[in-house]
Amino acid sequence: MKGRSVITYSVYAPTNVTTMLRPRRQDGQSIIQEGFQIEPSVTFSEFTDIYGNPCQRAILPPGTVTITTEVQAQVNATKPIPNPVPEFVMIGDLPDEVMHYILPSRYCQSDLPEIGKLAMDIAGNFKPGYDQVEEIRKWIHQNVKYQYGTTDSFTTALDIARNRIGVCRDFTHLAIALCRNLSIPTRMTVGYLDKLQEMDLHAWFEVYIGGGWYTFDAVQQQTEGYRIEIAHGRDAADVAMVTQFGNATLDSLHVEVQLLEAEPA
């Protein structure tokens, strides 16, 4: 599978940025080839954040700046529904490193009464664990309209619960808040997906059940396809592709995804 993104900025003064555009190296995702280029060329450094995501730092010069990233990876298809389905893990049995994924975060106010009521209305009568998460995923897919230009970087899970319109980021934030309200550790994941009607960098969610992480996608009718993961964290604040500290405007984002032959089953 190949993924490519081209991001163009108008920079009005030297601007510090941190980017999260290179893919993770992890089980089920073998990076064959990748590229990262800033034009005009500038010096950049790299570090790994607290979630294990590869990050880059640079100072963008005034003018038009283009950041191009490419990756070719061998990836596994999204796991089908397992049989038997994974069960809920009691909070006392969760690994330490998973605990922060059951707490409220900036965009996912899982502790609010309105979120709690909605979570119970949707999944309260289902078996804790996989069944509850899948019911939440299906409900969001069926009840939240997908439409560009209806939300922004300030939109939260509570806003989506009320307005029921947004994009993949918003679908994911609502799913995370609802699952965490049911004490199911949930994180936001971003990257490339081959099965998108309108190609873009995509966001989905992963939950910790049955002793492992499982992928769910509320945008899709059913969770499927091949994915290259770039980053994961508590919500969009942790996985922003570019965070800028200065005067720059995003002009365009172009994304290409190609599914190559001979992908593993």
How is this structure best described in words?
- InterPro entries: Papain-like_cys_pep_sf, Transglutaminase-like.
- This is Transglutaminase-like putative cysteine protease.
- Residues 160-220 form the Transglutaminase-like domain.
- The longest helix has 14 residues, at 130-143.
- The strands form 4 sheets. This protein has a 4-stranded antiparallel beta sheet, with no helix packed on it.
- The mean pLDDT is 94.
- The chain has helices at 113-123, 130-143, 157-163, 168-181, and strands at 2-11, 15-19, 29-39, 44-48, 54-60, 63-75, 145-146, 165-166, 186-193, 202-209, 212-216, 227-233, 242-245, 248-258.
- The protein has 2 domains: 2-76 and 241-258, Immunoglobulin-like, CATH 2.60.40.2250; 91-225, C8orf32 fold, CATH 3.10.620.
- It has 265 residues and is an alpha+beta fold.
CATH class of the largest domain: Alpha Beta
Spell out the helices and strands N to C.
Answer: EEEEEEHHEHEHEEEEEE
The portion of residues assigned to helices is: 10-25%
Q: Which residues sit in consecutive blocks of at least 5 with pLDDT less than 50?
A: none
Largest sheet: 4 strands, antiparallel
- Derived structural class: alpha+beta
Overall pLDDT score: 94
Q: Rough shape?
A: globular
Organism: Dyadobacter arcticus
Protein name: Transglutaminase-like putative cysteine protease
Pfam families: Transglut_core (PF01841)
Domain Transglutaminase-like: 160-220
